[in-house]
Amino acid sequence: MPPKWGLMPKKSSLMHAMPASVKGDVNAAGLKWISMYGDNPSRGLPALQGLVVLNDIESGTPIAVMDCGLVTEKRTAAAGVVAAKHLAFSDAKTMAIIGLGRVGVQHFVASLELLPHITHYFLFDFYPPSLENVKKLVAGLPTPHPEITYCTSAEEAVKDADIILTAISMTTEIKPCIKLEHLKEKVTFIAQDYDAAFTADCFAKADEFIADDTAQYQFTKKGGPNFAEFPMNPNADMGEVMSKKYKLKEGIKRRGVIFLGIATHDIVTAKLVYDKAKELGKGTLLDI
Q1: What is the pLDDT of residues 239-261, one digit of tens each?
Q2: Which end of the chain is more exposed for a tag (fewer CB within 10 A), N or C?
Q3: pTM for the whole structure
Q4: Which residues, listed in sequence order, are joined to residue 120 by a DSSP beta bridge?
């Protein structure tokens, strides 16, 4: 999997080409072409748009073209919440989610399922309709469910959180809203939105720094403009953590995590969607 290549056609925008191949049970290759326009909600459009092209790994034949929105939402939330499950401290009970658009909501839903030990959520979004949508979702949850506080600022949301997950729109109008002094003394914080949410000193002063993919993070930092003041070298990436090649530090207080999103996750998720669609007879067959 090569690092993803990108364009910035205008302020508050990104376009990424994300190719990958995955062997074994997945046995597929493909490319996700995604645009991220943080100001799109004001146009009535989703912030994330694009396509996934899925190929047979043996012949190279394209086998599916699909919208990348749901694929991105599901795989991003899965990666973030799995990271929280494995990287948060064992006594973590409270969680803040900053950014409650389509990706942020999926983080919340996945957390309810995979992190049953969380007793209190602190939720915040800069865009009020997003918070209202979450309130409707919460109203339909079975009871009892964890306590939920709807916050009026990111600072209010994170100050008592043992785990922080951020998925805010990457716009130039929103400056990093979470500063080092806002964090609890003991906390795991996970950025799913590049350097949009946290100031650089949060990571510079962290006791441990984990990335989803070290090479991709370093490639992105070197290419600029993101992560200019952030540390260059993570202690490890998530693959090294999960494979036990890296042992997490003990007795520390602050663990920072940056996930840029990796293409292998997209291809695995897209193949699951493709296989399920074939099983159910969904989709449109194209003669090409």
Answers
A1: 999 999 999 999 999 999 999 99
A2: C
A3: 0.92
A4: 94, 147
